Amino acid sequence: MAKDDPPVIFEASVDQVQIPQAEALLHADCSGKEVTCEISHYFLQAGQEATAERTARFIANVQAAGGGPGISIVLKTLRDAENRAAWHPMLNLPLSPRRTVPTTVKFQVTTQTQALSFLLGSSASLHCGFSMAPGLALRSVEWRLQHKGSGREVYSWTAGQSQARREGATLDPEQLHAAGDASLTLAGLTLQDEGAYICQITTSLYRAQQIIHLNIQASPKVQLHLADQRVPPTLICRITGYYPLNLAVTWTRKEQGGAPVQVSGASFSSLRQSMAGTYSISSSLTAEPGSAGATYTCQVTHVSLKKPLEVSAQVVPPEQRPIFGVILASSLFLLALLLFLRLTR
Predict the structure, then answer these.
(1) Which residue has the higher pLDDT, 252 or 323?
(2) Which residue of 9, 157, 236, 276 sits 20 to 30 Å from the alpha carbon of 298, by its own alpha carbon?
C-alpha cells in the first residue's frame, strides 16, 4: 500500500475456530504492551482446492511485545459480487456495509508466550496450540531449533508416527488430538538447547507456525576470602558457574557505626569458560582496614537472580589480628614431636 492509501480493516469471524489467546491480545494495551499485526496473502499449493479462484486467503501474525502471546491466523474470504455492493479498489475484494473486508478464520496456531527463561538442568515446556475449521485434517507437527545461524530438527509427528531428535524431547499425542496441544517438553536443559524454537503445524490445506525464544540461565556462586595477610590485604571475590555472560560486581566498605560506601579500584581476572559453557571470573580489591577495621561486601548482580548475591568479610588492622592460630600451630607441632620421641624409644 502507498503511504497515503486508507488502511484496510479485516473483520474476522471465529465461528469455526477457537482462539484461546484472543482476550490476552485484545487487552494487552491495558498492561502497557504494544500489539503488532502483520497481514499478507496466503497462497495455496496448486490443485489444493477447486474453488480457489473464487476465494482470497490471508495470514495474519498478531504479537504482543515483551514476551506476550502470539497468534498466526489463516483468513478466508469469498468473492461474492452479487451480495456485496462495494469492492476494495486495490485488493479487489467485497466490502461489508462497515467498509471492512469480511473473512472467516480457518486455522490458527498460538503460543502463550514468545520468550521463556529456564535454569540450566531444569525442564522446559514450550506451549504451542492450534485449532482448525471442520473438514481439515492434521497432517504433521514439527519442532525445529534455530540458533546462531544453524538449525536442526528437535521433534516431529507425522501421521501418528513421532520421532525425537533430541534426547528427552516429548510431546503428548493424546493432547495433540483431544485439545490441539502440540506443546514440547525438554528435560535436562543444556546450553545447546538455547535458541528460537519453531512450532510448525500442517493441516490438509494450511500451514502456520509460532516461534518461541528459549533462554538458558545459570545462577552464579560467590565466595569471598583474603588472598594473603600482607598490609594492606587483598580480597578476592570468586564468581563461578554463571550464564549468560553479562554480570555486574560492586564492592562496598562499611566501618563500624557507619553506612556502606561503594569503593572502586577492583581488578578482574581473565574470563574462564567450563566444558558445560558456564563462565567464571574473579574480582580482586585491596582492602583498607583503617584504625578500627572495616567490613567489605562483594555484591553480584545477574539476570538469573531475583536479587543480588552478597558476601562479606571483615578486615582488621594488623595489631588486632588474633595470634591464636600461631599458638595453636606451635602447640600441635610440639605435641607431634613429643609423640614421635616416645615412639622411637
Answers:
(1) 252
(2) 276
How does DSSP classify residue 45? P
CB atoms within 10 A of CB 178: 9
Q: Provide the 8-state DSSP code for 191.
A: G
Q: What angle do CA 126, 129, 134 make, to 5 degrees?
A: 165
What gap in Å lies between CA 298 and CA 220, rounded to an integer?
13
Q: How far apart (Å, rounded) are the C-alpha atoms in residues 144 and 117?
A: 18
Ordered by start, the domain boundaries in the chain are 10-217, 221-317
Question: Comparing 190 with 7, which gets the higher pLDDT?
Answer: 190
Q: Is 332 helix (H, G, I), strand (E, B) or coil?
A: helix
The verdict on domain 10-217 having CATH code 3.30.420.240 is no
**Domain 221-317, CATH 2.60.40.10 — does that match?**
yes
Q: What is the pLDDT of residue 342?
A: 59
In percent, how much of the chain has pLDDT > 90?
Answer: 56
> CATH topology of 10-217 equal to that of 221-317?
yes
What is the mean pLDDT of the segment spanning 41-54?
67
pTM of the prediction?
0.82
